[in-house]
Structure formats: C-alpha cells, structure tokens
Design goal:
Layout lengths: L2 E6 L17 E2 L2 E2 H11 L4 E6 L4 H7 L5 E4 L4 H11 L6 E6 L7 H12 L4 E7 L4 E4 L5 E5 L5 E3 L3 E4 H9 L11 H6 L5 E4 L10 H10 L1
Parallel strand pairs: 1-4, 1-6, 4-5, 7-12
Antiparallel strand pairs: 2-3, 6-11, 7-10, 7-11, 8-9
The structure holds cytidine-5'-triphosphate and magnesium ion.
Cytidine-5'-triphosphate binds next to helix 3.
Length: 218
C-alpha cells in the first residue's frame, strides 16, 4: 500500500492570534507544520505534500525538508485540501490528510488509520469520546435540550482515504463547498466512514491556551 500525506497548513490562525501563520508558530522551537510532517513520516507515510498560504511559500519552504512538496492553498480548508490532492501522486493507493494544527499527534494514530485502510475501509477517522455534557441552547442562551453523549465522538486527524474515492468525492463537491474536515466530504458522497481510536495528544491548537498546553507536553 503506497500512502501519500497531505498536511493542511494554509490557514492564518485568526483564533490563535499570532504574528505568524499558525502552522509556522513554534512549539518547543519548531514550527507546528514540522511536527505534523514528522508524525506522518514516523507513522509510515514517506511522501508528504504540505499546503501553505500562497504568500508564505518561501517561509514554509525554508523550514520543510527538501523532499516535501509545497503547494499553494485556498481560502478555505476544503479548497486547500483540494489543491493538495492535485499534487498527490497518482500512484498512491491511499491518502492521509492531517492538520498542521495537531503537532503532538502520536505516530500510532497514523498506524491505526493505515491498518484500517489496509483492512479495506475507504474512509477512516480517529475519534475520541465526549466527556462533557452536551446541550442545545436557544438564542437567549437558555438550555432547551441535552444531547445523549454516548454515541457522540470528537473527530481528529490524520484522516485516511482510498485515493480514488477521495478524489471522486472532492470532484463531486460544488466549487465553493466548505467542510471542516475531509470525512464529511466522503459522507456527502455516501461513502461509509469508519473510526479508529484517536489520542488526546492529537488535540488541535486553536487558541493560545492550546499552545500553552502543548508546550507543557514537549
Ligand atoms: N487550513 C488550510 N487552509 C485554509 C484554512 C485552514 O489548510 N484556508 C488548515 C489550517 O492550516 C489548519 C487546519 O486547516 O492546520 C485546521 O484549521 P484551523 O484550526 O481552523 O486553522 P486556521 O484556519 O488557520 O485557524 P482560524 O480558523 O483560527 O483562522
Ligand atoms: Mg479555520
């Protein structure tokens, strides 16, 4: 099975509020994007495409290994992954899409996703249970309902796909479609999405507190 990895790193990181694009923000002295590439490689994905903000291409190329393919991203994560897919080798059987914003993802998670793909799944996501009570509120912030928590899962990356299935699902999307992850693109195309165990360490760096927590773990 030949796997190619796509790292979505073209976001600006508005909620983190750093001076740099989020994927270039250092964690223990190394840009987040470098951690994400290393996770894929350590998990068994040799070939990696990194999707970057078009105006920051040089800054990313300067910190990434020479054999990483660097591609210009788009205005949304969906557009960025679409650009990465174009650059992903056609001889790959499977594609793993990973967020640069999940720097401490253990390589074991990559391994579990690859194993599920090798076992025949066409779409695989790492998930974790929900610990908090989840409620629905009205416009005034008053609780109107509670959602049963047992069947709920939090979805992480890397998410793995049969390459041809992923390409077809993206091709079927409207040009301006916006999804927060790739499994939802596959679900929109009617493809069953399987789950494997995620890992709390694969948490996404979204706000400054997340980066603070990540620094404590390095
Ligand atoms: N991403 C991307 N292209 C975009 C937007 C996001 O490749 N146009 C990537 C980000 O770089 C990140 C991942 O998708 O690794 C998850 O997105 P998110 O955490 O929302 O990052 P940002 O969009 O950069 O942050 P924010 O929404 O706070 O601006
Ligand atoms: Mg975003």
């Amino acid at each position: 099975m030949h796997a190619v990895g796509i790292v979505a790193a073209a976001g600006s990181g508005l909620r983190l509020g750093a001076e740099l694009p989020k994927a270039l923000v250092p964690l223990a002295g190394r840009p987040l994007v470098c951690w994400a590439v290393d996770t894929l490689r350590a998990g068994g994905v040799a070939q990696v495409v990194v999707v970057v903000p078009a105006d920051e291409r040089a800054a990313f190329a300067a910190v990434l290994a020479a054999d990483v393919v660097v591609v210009d991203g788009g205005a949304t994560r969906t557009a960025s992954v679409r650009a990465g897919l174009v650059a992903a080798a056609e001889d790959a059987d499977v594609v793993l899409v990973h967020d640069a914003a999940r720097p401490l993802t253990p390589p074991d998670v990559v391994g579990r996703v690859l194993t599920a793909l090798a076992d025949g799944a066409r779409a695989v996501v790492p998930v974790l249970p929900v610990a908090d009570t989840v409620v629905v509120v009205d416009e005034g912030g008053v609780v109107t309902d509670a959602v049963p928590r047992a069947p709920l899962r939090r979805v992480q990356t890397p998410q793995g796909f049969d390459r041809a299935t992923l390409v077809a699902a993206y091709a079927a999307l409207e040009d301006d479609a916006e999804h927060t992850d790739d499994a939802s693109v596959l679900r929109a195309a009617g493809v069953p999405v399987h789950t494997v165990d995620g890992d709390e360490r694969a948490a996404k760096v979204t706000v400054a507190h997340d980066l603070f927590l990540a620094e404590l773990q390095t």
